[in-house]
């Protein structure tokens, strides 16, 4: 079971809901997290249970980032809107930086999300269990 987070900017929420709905069976059996509104929209349209953090601009990105910093997140699907300035852009950049530091796969568009979810479905994320098992504590 992996810890997976979903984040979507406002103009990407419909795309996220459609994507998660299409791959709902793949996400069953995993521990799912999301920022507030995105998680609510996904739960309203699927049977998935999602732990919802605050809305992204109110600190939800940072809450997910805290899990990443502690190496407690395995995969993030973050559908960003590259054409709209975000008031919490520093939080977004910090989250992406943490993913790079910890080696957490993160998809920022639907094409990459599709590749990662197909890998998840094939079982290609077994290496994350080894990371959890053998990563030295700081």
Automatic annotation (TrEMBL):
The keyword 4Fe-4S does not apply. The keyword Lyase applies. Keywords: Lyase. It catalyses: dihydroxyacetone phosphate = methylglyoxal + phosphate. Residues 1-138 form the MGS-like domain. SUPFAM superfamilies: Methylglyoxal synthase-like. It holds the Pfam family MGS. Its EC number is 4.2.3.3. One of its GO terms (molecular function) is methylglyoxal synthase activity. The active site is at residue 61. Substrate binds at residues 9, 13, 35-38, 55-56, 88. Belongs to the methylglyoxal synthase family. Catalyzes the formation of methylglyoxal from dihydroxyacetone phosphate. PANTHER family: METHYLGLYOXAL SYNTHASE. This is Methylglyoxal synthase. It comes from Paenibacillus gansuensis. The gene is mgsA.
């Amino acid at each position: 079971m992996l810890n997976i987070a979903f984040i979507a900017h406002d103009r990407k929420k419909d795309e996220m809901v459609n994507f998660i709905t299409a791959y709902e069976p793949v996400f069953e059996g995993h521990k799912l997290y999301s920022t507030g509104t995105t998680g609510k929209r996904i739960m309203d349209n699927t049977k998935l249970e999602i732990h919802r953090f605050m809305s992204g601009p109110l600190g939800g990105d940072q809450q997910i980032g805290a899990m990443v910093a502690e190496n407690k997140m395995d995969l993030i699907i973050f559908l960003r809107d590259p054409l709209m300035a975000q008031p919490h852009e520093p939080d977004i950049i910090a989250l992406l930086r943490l993913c790079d530091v910890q080696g957490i796969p993160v998809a920022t568009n639907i094409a990459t999300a599709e590749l990662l979810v197909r890998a998840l479905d094939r079982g290609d994320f077994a290496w994350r269990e080894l990371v959890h098992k053998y990563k030295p504590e700081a």
